[in-house]
Amino acid sequence: MNPNTFVTALSEIELKDVFNPYRHLCHTHDLQDAPEVRRKNLELYLQVLEQLEVDTIWMGRDLGYRGGRRTGLALTDEYHLSHMGLAYPGVIAERATKGPAVSERTASEIWGILTKLSHPPLLWNVFPFHPHELGSEFSNRKFSKIELDTVTELNHQLISWLGIKRIICLGRDAAVYATKFGIDVECVRHPSYGGVKEFRVGMHKIYAKDFHQVKLHDQLFV
Q1: Where does the pLDDT of residue 76 fall: very low under 50, low under 70, confident under 90, or very high at 90 and above?
Q2: How far is CA 190 from CA 75, 173, 198, 209, in A?
Q3: Is 91 helix (H, G, I), strand (E, B) or coil?
Q4: Biggest distance spanned by C-alpha atoms of the chain
Q5: DSSP string spanning 129-153?
Q6: Which of 3, 59, 154, 200 is deepest in the core (most CB within 10 A)?
Q7: Helices 105-114, 196-206: crossing angle, 10 deg rounding
Q8: CA angle, residues 51, 190, 68, in degrees to nearest 5
Q9: DSSP bridge partners of 130
């Protein structure tokens, strides 16, 4: 397994009422080469993660229509594409859509924590595509068990290939799923639907050392 073969395998998956950003073109928002741009974004991201020897995943549930559906990067909206190189040196992520950049609240919370860490995680989702309601492409729904079964082996391969030792889950759906991989699992409240405060508290507890160092740094330059 390597970044190219992994992204290629993702791009070959076709499911009803599921937008695969590495395969599908959104005729409302996408540039003509959008799937290719998103494949390149993810492939470069995974290459850099391998070089950084990342051993932790932050795992959400699935791609949202305002975030990963557009960027091809989990828990990352277009507003934060320019931040990728700060957290993951060497990653230059391009936009795949036209018009104004779109922001997503969950991505903003994720990146508010991420940029303070000394060693960044892999941002990923249980289901790495955007499931939507029938006839409503710009909606979110939970994936089905059958849909999830199509990606579980790829998730296994990703975790094994990168040598992941810990999964920090955003919400209970991800936590229940992550237990099947046989590695350490921690869970924090997902920042959506009123969970922002609990999400921040949970992440501060897990990354207490990093946040302590940030505070010391700030005090030195007061």
Answers
A1: very high
A2: 11, 10, 8, 22
A3: coil
A4: 55
A5: SEE-BTTBTT---PPPHHHHHHHHH
A6: 59
A7: 20
A8: 55
A9: 19
Q: Which domain holds residue 113?
A: 3-220
Q: Look at residue 58 and tell me whether its pLDDT is greater than 80.
A: yes
- CA distances to 13, 25, 70, 99, 206 from 56, rounded to whole Å, are 25, 31, 24, 34, 12
101 within 8 A of 79, measured Cβ to Cβ: yes
Strand partners, 19: 130
Q: Does pTM surpass 0.90?
A: yes
| DSSP assigned state of 123 | E
Q: Residue 193 has what pLDDT? A: 84
Which residue is it, tokens 């919400």?
A: 171
User: With the C-alpha atoms ordered 21, 122, 200, 165, is the resulting torsion angle positive or negative?
Assistant: positive
Residue where the block lists tokens 């068990």? 145
Closest C-alpha to 110, from 52, 179, 57: 57
Beta-strand relationship, 18-19 and 56-62: unpaired
Residues 6 or more apart in contact with residue 221 via CB below 8 angstroms: none
What six digits make up the tokens of 6?
């992994």
Q: How many domains does the chain have?
A: 1
Q: Look up residue 122 and give its DSSP letter.
A: E
Q: How far apart are CA 50 and CA 63, in angstroms?
A: 22
